[in-house]
Design a protein that fits this description.
The protein has 475 residues and is of the alpha+beta class. It has one domain (2-473): Cytochrome-c3 Hydrogenase, chain B (Orthogonal Bundle). It is built from twelve helices and 18 strands. It has helices spanning 47-50, 59-62, 71-86, 92-118, 143-171, 191-222, 320-326, 336-360, 409-413, 425-430, 442-450, 455-458, and strands at residues 2-4, 8-13, 23-30, 33-41, 236-238, 241-243, 251-253, 256-259, 262-264, 271-274, 280-281, 285-286, 294-295, 308-311, 376-385, 388-397, 400-407, 472-473. The strands form six sheets. Strands 1, 2, 3, 4 and 18 form a five-stranded mixed beta sheet that branches. The chain has a three-stranded antiparallel beta sheet with strand order 5-8-9, covered by helices on one side. Strands 12-10-14 form a three-stranded antiparallel beta sheet, with no helix packed on it. Helix 7 crosses helix 8.
Length: 475
């Protein structure tokens, strides 16, 4: 942390979550409020380059390695892209199996995020690692309620593990299951598997209903100002999440864009990526189907390994709040607490849907549609995901991948400035955040964590000779 009379106090937070680095947030605080923010992804991995010249069917497996907490989202988007290329759809069981595996992963993610990343920002934690040192002294819950959240924190670990059992039973293993692939699924449906999964989903649903939901409302009761902190406009993007049938004629969470509060159908042709403040070379603004991956760690002005995606030139937010807002299931506001509550409400809805999908499975019926990969062509795979809209753009030539581009949900949310200097959603949400004590800027951490940043997803070569920040604060 450094202080300048004119520029204010500079605070650098790295890493931004309790599990890993690969991200950095730099803010300026003046008169007790954030006046400027820059969010940067600090690692380049180059998955689009890794995919070149490979069989398109490999994409569903390789892109899962982008992330260990949400691999099924990438498997789903990659499968959609190849199916779009080949002009095929999965059978009835295949569509339901993909939904179930994806949903199991979504639930384990949201349960882990709420308890492991969020709860320690607000409660008195036990003096054990990794909870010590605590991230805040601003703990307001009465002793009994505080203890209840701590008890549920530890129980959530087992519940999230049960969600992973779903992926292991239907997809072979978790994380990075083998059961989501172009054409459908890979594991035949049996009656005993359905019965086992119904029991698991019932346990998860009960935990969300009886513990997770009351816990998030307890935080809302004792931290009501966070209905105002982390606010921004009603600018959301959601690609359809969970097809209702193999033809994807509709989605359980329909895709839509909210532009200044006005809802419209998504036009993927309106998506562009800005490079001015990134560590990438290329056309300053380009559609992902034509975009390139040309890293330059020494590019002047660059501060992030994330490109800056925009929709009609606007920075749109994704995630559970966007997914519920665009379908009309939640319309209270846009803030830290709204994001947390929406994540829990969405989890409950998804757990309920899983019970319906399980009973709709038809044991003994096909789970996979056979197909031939075209020698050339293009495909697009769009899906909602744990943190928002995920897109895969694919071009094939000679039966091999010629071009592949990915825009992840955290690339939308954790975006750097665009070419006009406009901030990304997290950067915008941080502006105006009050900071009571620059030595303990827990308010900044709470805003960041409300977005559930996944930096392994957003970064697509660590440079060791970079200057070390004056002070690094770990949340």
């Amino acid at each position: 942390m450094t202080t300048d009379k004119n520029a204010g106090t500079r605070i650098v937070i790295n890493p931004t979550t309790r599990t890993m680095g690969a991200s950095q947030v730099e803010v300026r605080v003046k008169a007790g409020r954030v006046v400027d923010a820059r969010c940067g992804a600090t690692v380049f991995r180059g998955f689009e380059l890794i995919l070149r010249d490979r069989d398109p069917r490999d994409a569903a497996y390789i892109t899962q390695r982008i992330c260990g907490i949400c691999p099924t989202a990438h498997a789903t988007a990659a499968s959609f892209a190849v199916e779009d290329l080949a002009g095929i759809r999965p059978p009835h069981n295949g569509n339901l199996l993909r939904n179930l595996i994806f949903a199991g992963d979504l639930l384990q993610n949201h349960i882990r995020h709420f308890y492991l990343f969020t709860v320690p920002d607000y409660v008195r934690v036990p003096e054990i690692r990794p909870l010590t040192p605590p991230s805040t002294t601003d703990c307001r819950l009465p002793r009994a309620e505080n203890q209840r959240l701590i008890d549920n924190y530890f129980q959530s670990i087992d519940v999230s593990r049960k969600a992973y059992e779903i992926d292991a039973l239907l997809g072979g293993k978790a994380p990075h299951p083998h059961g989501i692939l172009p054409g459908g699924g890979s594991v035949p449906v049996t009656a005993i598997t359905v019965l086992n999964l119904l029991s698991i989903v019932k346990t998860i649903y009960r935990f969300i209903e009886e513990r997770m939901l009351p816990d998030v409302y307890t935080l809302a009761e004792h931290y009501p100002e966070y209905f105002e902190i982390g606010a921004r406009g009603v600018d959301f993007l959601n690609f359809g999440l969970f097809p209702v049938d193999p033809e994807a004629s509709a989605h359980h969470f329909p895709g839509a864009a909210m532009i200044g509060g006005r809802k419209e159908a998504v036009d993927s042709g309106e998506i562009s990526e800005h490079l001015r403040y990134t560590h990438f070379e290329g056309a300053p603004v380009e559609h992902p189907s034509r975009g390139d991956t040309r890293p330059n760690p020494d590019k002047p002005g660059g501060y992030s390994w994330a490109k800056a995606p925009r929709y009609r030139g606007r920075a749109l937010e994704g995630g559970p709040l966007a997914q519920l807002w665009t379908c009309g299931d939640y319309r209270r506001g846009v803030s830290v607490l709204d994001r947390l509550i929406a994540r829990v409400l969405l989890s409950r809805e998804v757990a309920g849907l899983m019970r319906k999908w399980l009973t709709a499975l038809k044991p003994g019926r096909p789970v996979f549609s056979h197909f031939q990969v075209p020698k050339s062509g293009v495909g697009v795979g769009l899906t909602g995901a744990m943190r928002g809209p995920l897109g895969h753009w694919l071009e094939v030539e000679g039966g091999r991948i010629k071009h592949y581009q990915i825009i992840t949900p955290t690339a939308w949310n954790f975006s750097p400035h665009d070419d006009q200097g406009g901030p990304g959603p997290v950067e915008e949400a941080l502006i105006g955040t009050p900071v009571a004590d620059p030595n303990e800027p827990v308010e900044i951490g709470r805003v960041l964590h409300s977005f559930d940043p996944c930096m392994s997803c957003v970064a697509h070569v660590i440079v060791v000779d970079r200057p070390v920040p004056d002070r690094v604060i770990v949340f």
